[in-house]
Specification:
Elements lengths: L2 E19 L2 E15 L4 E6 L10 H16 L7 H11 L4 H19 L3 H4 L8 E2 L2 E3 L4 H13 L4 E5 L4 H15 L4 E5 L7 H11 L6 E3 L7 H10 L4 E3 L6 H10 L4 E5 H4 L2 H14 L2 E5 L5 H13 L3 E5 L2 H4 L13 E2 L13 H7 E7 L2
Parallel strand pairs: 5-6, 6-7, 7-8, 8-9, 9-10, 10-11, 11-12
Antiparallel strand pairs: 1-2, 1-14, 2-3, 4-13
Helix pairs in contact: 1-2, 1-3, 5-6, 6-7, 7-8, 9-11
The protein binds magnesium ion.
């Protein structure tokens, strides 16, 4: 089996509500869908959702990189030879993990379809039966965030990820308001998205929040400030998760060396796809660090790829892949049983892609044959 042609679609996924985090407000989600066709007629889908604040890649740069560099480099290759594919992509361009993830995911979809097994079967087999789905609360007024949390509990949710990271004193009020509204039994995780900048601000905030019983605190300080994470971890008692700071193998080595976090948020878009994500998970497992699979708010394609990884490894103890629940239109049909998700047993990514919706959401596209 050889890669024959690659279609690249630049799409915009419409959001039901704007998604607001510390560094950006999204009205829709720009994404790149990759469709790989092989010489034996199989089709696999991949996705790249670039985040310029995290990896320096944009929607436009990812499209160009796939069109002019990565797609031509992998045409003619066997999509099941992952070590080789990544070596080819890494030689062609430094970093650019989201662009590489699109090719990687499409090849895993193809490999699963070729062998007639779900992708998780290629990653060690299924370990988890189901994961709870966490509801993400966008940044808003403390009372509005608390009201929304209350409403979502009635829909069945029992855990929340609060986005904060604007003004630290308002953030403290947001967290206190949600906790007061939902009671002590509900799980609350807080993602600051680097918004508290440094260890001093973070420690000051956490002194006011220690009694709120948070599951964990995610990326309070600037991504590259590993020493800041070390200081926060030493001086507070809430488990600490690294997200934006943890992208590649080099970052994971430094994190392990410094013991800079209790948990890490691994995303296919930060590390280059399923294959490197598994390597990161093994590194974390050996160092006794718990993992979560997160996303850049991806369609059914990227989200399913993330779930395939999470379901296959014991070291993944939580998932945050809620993109498909946020979109009013999606290119695929990944199924959630809110407040849980259970993957099906269909080959590859286990989803159908609706080509009509894909065309409808496409702003520009290209076909690469060599
Ligand atoms: Mg995060």
């Amino acid at each position: 089996m050889k890669i024959k042609e690659i279609d690249i679609y630049a799409i915009r996924l419409p959001l039901i509500d704007p998604f607001i985090i510390s560094y950006h407000t999204y009205d829709d989600m720009p994404s790149i869908i990759v469709k790989i066709t092989t010489d034996d007629g199989l089709v696999g889908y991949g996705e790249a959702v670039a985040d310029e604040h995290v990896t320096g890649e944009t929607w436009e740069s990812t499209y160009a990189l796939l069109k002019y560099t990565l797609a031509p480099a992998v045409i003619g290759e066997n999509p099941m030879e992952f070590e080789r594919l990544h070596e080819i992509m890494n030689k062609a361009v430094y970093q650019a993990p989201a662009a590489k993830a699109a090719i990687d995911i499409a090849c895993y979809d193809l490999a699963g379809k070729k062998l007639g097994v779900p992708v998780y079967q290629l990653l060690g087999g299924r370990y988890h039966e189901k994961f709870p789905v966490t509801h993400v609360l966008s940044i808003g007024k403390p009372t509005d965030m608390a009201e929304e949390a209350k409403r979502r509990i009635q829909e069945g949710y029992s855990s929340f990820k609060m986005k904060v990271g604007t003004d630290v004193q308002v953030d403290v009020k947001r967290i206190q308001a949600v906790r007061a509204k939902v009671g002590e039994e509900i799980a609350i995780r807080v993602d600051v998205n680097q918004g508290w900048k440094n260890s001093a601000t973070t420690i000051m905030a956490m002194r006011q929040l220690e009694k709120e019983g948070l599951d964990w605190l995610e990326q309070p300080v600037i991504a590259d400030d590993f020493n800041g994470m070390v200081e926060v971890k030493a001086k507070t008692s809430t488990p600490l998760m690294m997200d934006e700071g943890l992208r590649n193998f080099r970052d994971m080595r430094e994190l392990i060396e410094k013991q800079a976090a209790h948990k890490v948020n691994i995303k296919l878009m930060k590390c280059g796809g399923i294959y490197p994500a598994m390597k990161l998970a093994h590194m974390a497992e050996m160092a006794g660090i718990e993992c979560q699979i997160g996303s850049m708010v991806e369609s059914s394609i990227g989200s399913s790829a993330g779930f395939q990884v999470a379901f296959s490894k014991k070291v993944f103890t939580s998932v945050e892949l809620t993109g498909p629940l946020k979109f009013s239109k999606d290119v695929g049909n990944l199924h959630y049983d809110v407040p849980f998700i259970q993957l099906n047993e269909r080959p590859g990514l286990g989803i159908d892609v609706d080509e009509k919706i894909l065309q409808e959401l496409t702003e520009f596209s290209t076909k690469v044959t060599k």
